[in-house]
Design goal:
CATH class of the largest domain: Alpha Beta
Number of helices: 9
Number of domains: 2
Largest sheet: 8 strands, mixed
CATH architecture of the largest domain: 4-Layer Sandwich
Shape: globular
Helix content: 10-25%
Strand order of the largest sheet: 6-5-4-3-2-1-14-15
CATH topology of the largest domain: Metallo-beta-lactamase, Chain A
Strand content: 15-25%
Distance between the termini: 12 Å
Length: 409
């Protein structure tokens, strides 16, 4: 593990030095240009007016664009993971690549895409960067935007090695950066400002892609802390037509305050059928439904493609997911002729996990444990991830606990 960490840190340092050396390139070379606040007017007739329709951007200085042609956003079904292709009139941008495998590569090639102008790695978890390894191996990539936090996994090491090997421009993604994506499309980065490797989900790069009056909020696995920072610190108006729901629909994301600020018309949840996390969680679905948002899910609809001309949008899946709240069983009616029976006191026992496998881990760490381990008992139910075998845990890039010492050492 020490050797791996040294290698990863060395590669990161080389990549950062390379990125710094290229930062003085001339405008138009693909590197972020200073945000001067100058924008192209969307039309003088509505200058200064605020649309009353939620999900349609106010034509503010930070979001106004003058679109030409069409923009397509593909939410690619990669199972339990994220992979989003953004096609502007002149560029192809890939945000995440799902787990390792050829799903995304095959999808890109089916569309005739033989190069990518930009790849955004939201954060270094395997279900977001794994497939990027296959992409970089198969398709030329001009630039990668990454939160630049270290993760000690083989997947992350392989990903960084390929970026360096292929001389790909490496840019640290930070809040306040913006990018002209061509054809009137604009991308703003709303988060992070100072990411930490101690909580990788909240290191996620959050972007807003704007095309005329239609916009997309792409959140990676950003959780409540990130959403709060965006609302308090971002200079970009969060209102967006489409919200890619954070963290695969987990209850740890999509707070009421964030959902109210974004005010989306459409929510897209990217998760796998029967995933062990229970995504999407009931609380998230209930909040979206209560807000009147149309919900689309890759585990139900498959790949979701949204096409817009900057004024209206069309979705390849015509029927959104119909949310039905879980029913709570009603208590049995009491009989007047029967005296109430005093319930027997429950024996006092230590809280235990409802076992769903042989080993348990947490989404907030990279260790797996025996269920009886003292560390396992401290894992909150919403953070549990269960593995049926040691191989399942190792394939997910978890390492054995040093206290309970499950197989795999």
């Amino acid at each position: 593990m020490k050797k791996t960490l040294v290698v990863v840190l060395s590669i990161m340092l080389c990549v950062f030095i390379f990125a710094g050396c290229t930062s003085s390139s001339a405008p138009g070379d693909g590197l972020p240009e200073p945000d001067t606040g100058q924008t192209v007017a969307a039309g003088s007739d509505n200058e200064g007016e605020t649309p009353s329709d939620p999900g349609v951007d106010q034509p503010s200085e930070s979001s106004r664009t003058n679109p030409s042609g069409e923009l397509k956003v593909h939410f690619i079904d990669v199972g339990q993971g994220d992979a989003i292709l953004v096609q502007t009139p002149s560029q192809n941008i890939l945000v995440d690549g799902g787990n390792r495998g050829t799903t995304v590569v095959n999808y890109l090639k089916s569309l005739g895409i033989n190069s990518l102008d930009l790849v955004i790695s939201t954060h270094p978890h395997a279900d977001h960067i794994g497939g990027l390894i296959n992409v970089i191996e198969s398709i030329p990539v001009r630039e990668v935007i990454d939160p630049a936090v270290v993760h000690t996994t083989k997947t992350f090491e392989d990903y960084l090695t390929l970026i360096d090997k292929n001389d790909i421009i490496f840019t640290e993604g930070r809040a306040g950066m913006s990018r002209d994506l061509g054809g009137g499309a604009r991308m703003d980065i709303l988060h992070p400002s100072s990411p930490s490797s101690s909580h990788l989900n909240d290191a996620s790069i959050v972007t807003k892609v704007t095309f005329g009056q239609i916009s997309f909020m792409l959140t990676g696995d950003a959780e409540k802390a990130s959403e709060s920072k965006i609302l308090l610190q971002s200079t970009v108006q969060p209102t967006s037509t489409v919200l890619k729901v954070g963290h695969h629909g987990s209850r740890t994301s999509t707070t009421s305050a964030f959902l109210k600020a974004v005010a989306p018309k459409v929510a897209v949840i990217m998760c796998g059928k029967g995933n062990t996390y229970g995504h999407p969680h009931e609380e998230t679905l209930a909040n979206l439904a209560a807000a009147g948002v149309d919900i689309y899910r890759t585990d139900i609809h498959g790949t979701i493609v949204i096409t817009t001309d900057g004024q209206t949008f069309d979705i390849n899946q015509k029927q959104p997911y119909q949310y039905n709240p879980q029913k709570v069983p009603e208590p049995a009616p009491k009989s007047e002729a029967t005296a109430p029976v005093e319930p027997k006191p429950e024996p006092v026992t230590e809280p235990t996990h409802v076992s769903q496998g042989a080993y348990v881990g947490s989404v907030k760490s990279d260790k797996y444990h025996k269920p009886e381990c003292r560390h396992a008992k401290n894992i909150l139910p919403e953070n549990e991830i269960w593995f049926k075998t040691v191989k399942n845990a190792l394939d997910a890039e978890y390492v054995p606990c040093g206290v309970c010492r499950p197989p795999g050492n």
